[in-house]
Records
---
Amino acid sequence: MTQTHAQASSAPVSASVPMLQLKVKVLRFDPEKDKKAYWTTYDVEAQAGDRVLDVINHIKWYLEPSLTFRRSCMHGICGSDAMLINGRNRLACKTLVRDVAKSGGTITVEPIRGLKVEKDLLVDMEPFFDSYKAIMPYFINESPAPAAERIQSEEEAERMAHSSNCILCACCTTSCPIFWVNGSYLGPAAIVQAHRFIFDTRDEATQQRLGIMNQNTGVWRCRTAYNCTEACPRDIPITQLIEEVKRAVMYGQA
Amino acid sequence: MHHRYDVLVVGAGGAGLMAALYAAKGDVSVACISKLYPTRSHTGAAQGGIGAALGNVQEDHWEWHMFDTVKGGDYLTDQDAAEVFAKDIIDAVYELEHMGLPFSRTPEGKIAQRKFGGHTRDFGKAAVERSCYAKDRTGHMILQTLYQQNVKAGTTFFNEFHVTDLLIEDGRCQGLVAYELSTGELHTFHAKAVILAAGGYGRVFKITSNALTLTGDLMSIYYRKGLPLEDMEFYQFHPTGLAKLGILVTEGIRGEGGILRNDSGERFMERYAPTIKDLAPRDIVSRSIITEIREGRGVGRDKDAVNIDLTHLPREVIEGKLAEITDLARTYLGMDPVKDLVPIQPTAHYAMGGIPTNLDGLCLSDGSGGTVEGLYAAGEQACVSLHGANRLGTNSLGDLVVFGRRAGIAAAKYARQVEYPDMPETGDAQRESVDLFERLRNGSGKENAAAIRKELQESMMNNVGIFRNGKDMAAQVDIIKELKARYQGVTVSDPSRRYNSELIEAMELGFMLDCAEAMTASALNRTESRGAHDREDFTERNDAEWLKHTMAYKNLNKADDVIIGYKPVALKGFTRAFEPKPRVY
């Protein structure tokens, strides 16, 4: 099925900016009426600098109102719109048309893998957040707090710079081949969250955290496929962080 | 379904999460309802920092912070709120650190602080390092940390539930009705106290830093009850949004030494704010940028932007302390702030106005002390009024934690003291929500919600933007009337019950139209220039007539009519007071 032409650009139309002709192929599925997923292709016009989310929004607003997906911030900080775009996990709002298609080309959009599809591009995030909650994702220090801040050096703070940058979008976990075949694996996102607390010099629960990571759902499932690192829209070196957690588990300390 | 909690919190951004934590500490049952997963909330988009007079870098005092907040608000700030805030925020920041928030650090290992617009030492003498930051991801860290603490506390969350109605009878809030996105089911929540903390409504403008979900839902629902919205004419345009996109570029870039330049490379802020230059408050910088553009000194294809220059800063500062905006400029504009000038333009950012409250977050029903029993509000949704006519950078994050906490404490205290209010039968409670959906699903009109929304956003940008005048705003009143009439012809084509996001977007458009209506009427009514409200036909601040808050009420007896009332400004704090003076920097 092909829908008619329309213009997706969020930017003002200007004669000097060429419009690209695109086909956007979306994998659709509504369990209320469909037995299985099917592809629908939409013809749209867009500017090279438009976000893929601009294009998908345009399809929803003017061509196919029932198209369903999550989105909010539009600039890669809320983590709502992880999708498989041209076969790779990305945030639709942080992927520009020019990065994935030339004029006359096709952009394919599918739901992220390994989580149940609820409708079109929207998946059940509960198992993902269950894994998050399983790693005690909160700071623990029961010693009486000082009147002012706890002291931490710049270098110590920098150890959390990558892991605390995670937005829980699930791009990493749903690109992991181990997670696809074994949903009980906590997955890279949960391990990144664990890293954030294990390597926080102020946190007092390191041993408990390392114990969780040492369980058979923890770090040892990782086979260093690097899919997670490649998928991360925040450029977090996830595989490296997982390796750091593995070492900490092995030596029993951060 | 029917639920019952002592305290219900609506919204899971900074204010809602703080309120939920503190309500739970008050030994009452608490649930938090959010239309998103909590970590998707737009608090996470805040970048530059949270201001508190810790004095970690340079001498600082809460009195200086209070003064800056009052002056920044062009003296419309309620000074009792500013005093409570400037004192409380110091402990609140330490509390965030004790919750594990990964702040950037000084060489001594203390919380790092940097300069920010309008924050000064010694009552305006020079810029001071007051903004406590975690690189340029401070909002992200606050959101994550507060969510983590709620996971630890075992807070009950209802994620992806959209509030459709508040239940208020005889001046007492009884609970609310919400729509569960995953099933299409309406739920009734019975509560002793409800805290509204669902954020702003920046999506009424075309160029905005706000998320698609910031559509003013709860402000509109409050307004539909005939209850007032305060100071809706005061809407902040952040000076630096990425050109064309409106994506926020933190004021922290100027705090770290970034310089605004026009087409000839001139540091034009020297002409507009000779003392603090690029670190003037946001309303002044936004107007200065637009003036440069109007006078032909803009940059870019359409000459509708100016440049921010970071190229003189060390690479480590740009890629370290400003990592987020460096990534944004590279991703969306293909430009590298280390060596390129980055084009920016003002972007609709923050509502100073909202649901009026007292210092404990209790909602006000008029301008003379009336309240809605059991109903609280905090954060951008609320107007306490800390920010007056213009909010200073970093004071939004401070507002969330200070007044979110106060609302949580007050709501729990109230809930401990009272019985559950009477609750209408489910059919009666849900009637308005059912009617709303019935009309959107079963209408015969052929109007497209997206097209109406686009016209609203473009016309608001043109007619109620940074520079305003009576003629354009009067035209906008008519445009909104017409768009509201057309909205009645919107019909949702997707019949599905589960995950019907078309239905939600159509409902949200109705909320946005209400917010735009209250905002335009309030702005047209105020015939002076103050803070972010700048009129070309009334260019001066007029304290004799206008040193008062606007209270905008929907006229429930006459369609499209807004009744304007007023509320006095608290011109004194508890121990300090700052007399209104001309606002120069």
Note: The first strand of chain A starts at residue 2 and ends at 3.
---
Amino acid sequence: MSEGNHEGVHRHPAPTGFIRKYIFSLDHKVIGIQYIVLALAAVLVGMIMSLLMRLNLSWPGTSWPILGTLFPGGAPNGVMNPEFYLSLVTMHGTIMVFFVLTTAPQGGFGNYFLPIQIGAEDMAFPLLNMLSFWVTFVGFIVILSAIFLSGAESTVGPIGGWTGYAPLSALGAIAGPGQGMGMNLWIISIAIFCVGSLLGALNFITTLLNMRTKGMSLMRMPLTCWAWFTTAVLALLSFPVLLGGGILLLLDRLAGTSFFIPGGLYVSGVLSGTNPNFPLHTGGSPVVWQHLFWFFGHPEVYIAILPGMGATSHILATFARKPVFGYRAMVFAIFAIGLLGFFVWGHHMFISGMSPYSAIAFSVLTLSIGVPSAVKTFNWLGTLWGGRIRFTTAMLFALGFVSLFVAGGISGLILGQSSLDLAMHDTYIVTGHFHLVMGVASIFGMFSALYFWFPKMFGRFLNESIGKFHFWITFIGVYAIFIPMHIMGIVGMPRRYSQFTEYEFLKGLHPLVVFVSVAAIITILVQFVFYFNVIWSVFKGAKAPDNPWEATTLEWNTSTPPPHDNFAGVLPVVYHGPYEFAVPGAPNDYVMQTDSGVEVTSGNGHNGHRH
Amino acid sequence: MSTEARAGHFPAVDWNGGAFPYRVGHRKLGMWLFIVSDSLTFSALLIGYAYLRASNNWPTPFPFYPSIVFSSVMTFCLLSSSLTMVFGVSASAKGDKAGARKWILATMFFGAAFVVLHLIEWKHLLDEGLRPFFLPEHWAKVFTLADGTPPTALFGATFFAITGLHMFHVATGLIYLAVVAARVKKLKHEDVEISGLYWHFVDLVWMFVFPLIYVLSVDMHGALGH
């Protein structure tokens, strides 16, 4: 049977040496864990940067001696420079968006569980899989190197923000500290990252389309698989555009072209063309960069959050002991969100001077994403309705995901209207909005996924008591950080400024700024408890059986942790939809997908719905 | 598990996974996906080109002879290479490995001819004074508008960036085909077919580059006195 299913090209024997087994591994499970470790390292860097930013915002001018020792140029005598702050903004955004929110949800959990959940032995292209991780790793090293090699003593990278807006990003060192070598390293890192993501996306799509086991029809796949598949399609179509834009940006910087640089620029006291450091540029358009960047950048938002949506659906059903409400509608909503995600990039550019007519089109399309988003939200609530809920840590984080997605999404309806956005775009309301909906919600999806799948991955549970402590402090903490930012934004506090104490109209907000910083410090400290929990539980956690959560999908069919070829040589055959909980007449309250002995007359998935 | 007996119970509403009889192989599907993604990279560049062209005074300096005639010969080479590749894949489908190798070598010959002609053309333009960041002085003079707006130096930038990226793809394809030709006896037919997909894609990209970059830049009014 297994021969009939697969070409056999990806069959590789279990490696024995340490390097082949754990470093240059072809096994999708090891590669998945590598991605997760990469994300855990990257998030630590990004988080410490956000901590430094908060310190500077709430207590400007204070001397932090350790900072003065580490970065004598950026924080002389321990007092942060404005440029140092701006480079923190850039690097925090870049590291978080690319190396955390894009790697862990897709490369990490997707890599580990997509093949198992569809009943495959590995990904379609194991070698490509290994390459995509190591290419991504090189990208991470390059972006880290920008911290120390930014070309300016006073920064830890470029200062133009994670969007790399031209002309600031296209001019070279003349545009400011860190915009020389720091910006070069930034573009090179992102280009490398694009290649790694493309290889990964290609692999995911091929695996899912070609390698499902017998009985695993598309409409019997867990919603996680639908989410990873859609994410891969988005990555396949959006990263090449960023790659194209990155090539042009690099040409502007290194070959003297002017794709994104208009004529007559006067920068740092020098007119374009009057100085060898600032050669003549004419005719380019910074808006072209914005179009290319956001054509990638908006789908990227969904690349970050769709896997979290998939994991949330999966985990809510498991711990509510009910089928996912409206499975088909959930699948179509995932696809609708992915599709619409390609037609709304202009809402990032309402204030870039584009035609108001196109702003209306982008605005209407943006608001229409509210429809599939609402379908998902109500279906999550419908799944919970009347369920016998088991409040595990994974479940709490999944519930937290729904909460954050709604709370962050509501302000999206405000910002998506071009007329309102004109006033609010460059304020803290945008910072609050996207951190809640794209940043923290995605992270909650990943926390949920980690608490849920950790027993399968390592054979031991994460500690539930520490987990619940971690959840409650983090959940309250992120709301305490990001909800006040909405208020600051409406008052008119501009984002990306290094300090606000000079502005009369913002002085009243200072206590709120301090409150946010205190909340951020507490929340960040609790994450170290989480790190401790992960490391401790890998070695000392309570031992987990094969199916500890009484779940239904294929990963719970195999041993814990799964063998090298996932199913010990015998591929499973699937008879049911993915979420057959509380089936009338069944011996247990859950029916495994492989359970051939149970008759499910009208089931979840392609057989229709049962309530 | 009585797997085979149960398997018959599946409703035929959609395919139940497993070995789909009409599916394409992993590698062929992978190549198609790569082509989709790579075509978006080219689209990004061509759309950026369109935007910049529409918002600037764009010079149209290519004379029919020699520029267009020369680039038409290049186009002819690339089209011929696609034809020989079709014969190569067809020979491979019939199991004629030696024939497949000959046709792939012919494809490489036309592809290499394209690259050589392209480099000659680049050298010609560089000698004339075109750079990624400025136009030859006599072009700048001729194409300045009545109101004094000079033609944009982005002509060279888009020209070298887009044709350069395409040439890089052709060069990569030559290496790819060389590997396929060398190992054709060991490869399955599908692998030969996949290399054909890539080669036809590179050819197809040129079918966009040629009209958009060359034909649209013809010096219709003989402004440069050709």
Note: Chain A has a mean pLDDT of 92.
